[in-house]
Design brief:
By secondary structure, the protein is α+β, with helices and mostly antiparallel strands. It has two domains: 2-99, Aminopeptidase (3-Layer(aba) Sandwich); 100-251, Aminopeptidase. It has helices at residues 54-67, 81-89, 107-110, 128-144, 208-222, 237-245, and strands at 2-4, 13-19, 22-27, 30-39, 45-50, 72-77, 93-104, 121-124, 170-175, 178-186, 193-199, 227-233, 249-259. It starts with a strand and ends with a strand. This is Ribosomal protein S18 acetylase RimI-like enzyme.
Length: 263
């Protein structure tokens, strides 16, 4: 527990750890700032701070960095100069840029209505065991090539041990009875989000990604959903071309920052 009064007048602010991953900045029994640490499915720890006072932000950042092992990450909207400055004071630097997209579902806009499923390919909801095998194979390919850090940031809570997979969130493509690609949709949000779309390297350039998108977006359109969201690392030019080819519009840019300093 720490206390300080710098920049806040005579009344001191106390930094309290209120849970394993939460901190409060308190003055006169009022919470004037909050900090959170979340461990994501890929094992990385992301920090966030909510306060409007620079001095409180800095103290929360120090407390959280002292507690969490390096590296630590955070995500900031590129237009939020004040938040960028706060994390910069805490020693964070930009490590990747991610474009957000709003993706239409109407086949008259996407042009996916005329997309034929490639020969020998079937689109369906997966079973858990082969889905996990496909997920692990795709992760291994991405990690050995561009690195998993270039994939969309994962937001499901860390469970420890084996990563949880919910087959209901996935649609898969099978070629000749073997899983070849997948798409994951986070539907329990205000606007559905494409969390991941990936195809095994040996099955790429055969229209499988477009077939998966056509199947999922068409189903969402029929159920009354006009648009979904997606995030793409800006080094992934193929994914950006794919989304822009079906009428997706950029909705902003998020910057992922990292602090690698050991305490």
């Amino acid at each position: 527990m720490n206390s300080f009064s710098t920049g806040l007048g005579a009344r001191a602010v106390t930094i309290c750890r209120v849970a394993d991953n939460q901190w409060h900045a308190v003055r006169n029994d009022l919470v004037v700032g909050r900090g959170y640490a979340a461990r994501r499915l890929d094992g990385r720890t992301f920090l966030s701070i909510d306060t409007w006072r620079d001095a409180v932000f800095d103290r929360l950042a120090v407390a959280m960095l002292d507690d969490q092992p390096a590296p630590r990450y955070t995500v900031v909207d590129e237009t939020d100069a004040e938040l960028m400055a706060g994390w910069g004071r805490a020693g964070f630097v930009t490590c990747r840029r991610e474009s957000g997209y709003v993706v239409p579902t109407d086949p008259r806009i996407t042009g996916l209505s005329a997309t034929e499923t490639p020969p020998g390919v079937r689109i369906e909801t997966p079973a858990e065991t082969p889905l996990r095998e496909l997920d692990e194979a795709i992760r291994a390919e991405v990690e050995s090539a561009v690195g998993w850090q270039t994939m969309p940031a994962e937001v499901l809570p860390w469970q420890g041990g084996t990563r949880p997979l919910d087959p209901a969130s996935y649609t898969v493509a099978l070629r000749d009875g073997r899983y070849a690609g997948l798409i994951r949709i986070a539907a329990r949000t205000r606007r559905p989000r494409i969390g991941l779309i990936a195809v095994l390297a040996a099955e790429q350039r055969h229209g499988i990604a477009r077939a998966l998108l056509g199947h999922v977006l068409g189903g969402l359109h029929r159920s009354g959903t006009d648009t979904v969201t997606a995030e793409v690392d800006e080094t992934n030019e193929a994914a950006m071309r794919l989304f822009e080819a079906i009428g997706a519009q950029r909705s902003g840019r998020a910057l992922e920052l990292v602090n690698r300093d050991e305490v």
